[in-house]
Amino acid sequence: VTQGKPHPEVYELCAKGLDLSPKDCIVFEDSIAGLQSGKAAGCSILGVATSHTVEELKPHVEQIISDFTDPLVFTL
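The chain above was modelled as a monomer; its predicted structure follows.
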């Protein structure tokens, strides 16, 4: 990776490495820059409210979980 978040390069390269389109990937992110990066790459994004509050994440993402035990994770 030559450019850090919020540039989408990290997620574009990950998708490419998995031989997937970014639109077929889900990004779980706890940072604002990470959410912006995943969205810019064209991935589906899911906020994880561990580093920021739900209120801080809301302007950047539609779906937010509190942690990876949240039931929403198992419906994806």
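The longest helix spans residues 32-41.
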